[in-house]
Write a structure and sequence with these properties.
Blueprint: H1 2-16, H2 18-22, H3 24-29, E1 50-65, E2 69-70, E3 79-80, E4 83-96, H4 103-116, E5 120-126, H5 134-138, H6 155-163, E6 168-178, E7 185-194, H7 201-206, E8 210-218, H8 231-241, E9 243-246, H9 263-275, E10 281-286, H10 293-313, E11 321-327, H11 338-344, E12 346-351
Helix pairs in contact: 8-9
Amino acid sequence: MLRRSLACSALVLFLANPVLADNSEFVAELGKDAAKAADSSLVGRYEGAFIVGQTKKAFDELTLADGPAVGEEYEDGKKFTSTMTAQGKVTRTLYVAPQGRSSLEVFGNYVDDLKSKGFTPVFECAKDACGPSFKLLTYRWDDKQTLVVSEGADTIRTMASQAMFDSVIDPRYALLKSGEAGSETYVAVFAAQNQGGSYGDMSEALQDRVGVLLQIVEPKARETKIVTLSADEIGADMANTGRVVLYGIYFDFDKSVIKPESQDQLEQMKTYLESNPDVKVYVTGHTDTQGGLDYNMKLSGARAIAVTKALAKAGVEGSRMTPKAVGPLAPLASNDDDAGRAKNRRVELVKQ
């Protein structure tokens, strides 16, 4: 009778609690670290927390808020009143704390730990003082510059990253720094308690749990890896294969403005075209698969146009060049890792 009563009680509890009934897979996923993720040596994790997602870049730049936000979430003009940009080794880690903890407690532990290690506050805010759109500008599911999804994350793990901060209370933020001028290390801590949300079972699994976004920029010199093909090398490839792959044309992330370090490659492209006045080319832009197809086609087309305009401005007859968007449709490597994606982001000249 005891065994039967226990089974009946368990069934009643299971049916009466939809979180237990429907969310076990999601809760289990939140109870383990993302693959290949690890805590920073600069600051550990809150006790009982797990890493939902993590991204690392050996050298990149990160723009961080150092002032409150203005504008409502629904307004087009919402923005941070002040930001700063730092370059170096960038690590972004998304944590979820155990249930029964407040934003104040979790956030305070991170900030106190950093202060004990010599970090000094640059800016700090809490709740309404951060501004009504602060959370949305800091982390948003459809803004891949803010989203933290580990490389190779499966559907459930990706959903956990997207659902974090979807609907929150008690947001808190601090930007701290340490080190001498010119070689500072910056750490930004954003914490808020998940409350509600539009991700169904995943939002239920996150209910009342504090999410923490930890962003770190450590000083590191940029490695010089610009590969510039000479006019002769361009000519050889064009003669042998009818196309040449160029990695010496650089753009900022998600933009089509050519960066100054691309000038040497543009000069060599101009020299080749001037030396071969009868050659007409397609200037093709290529991307990796991150982002939607329509987005990448638009971006690659804009970059191809930018290169064509730069060459025309340098003196190459515009009628000899036709910009074309290829986007992610002609990869040279797998898009499953950073190395492959970097190989796929390129500009090509293709003989017409």
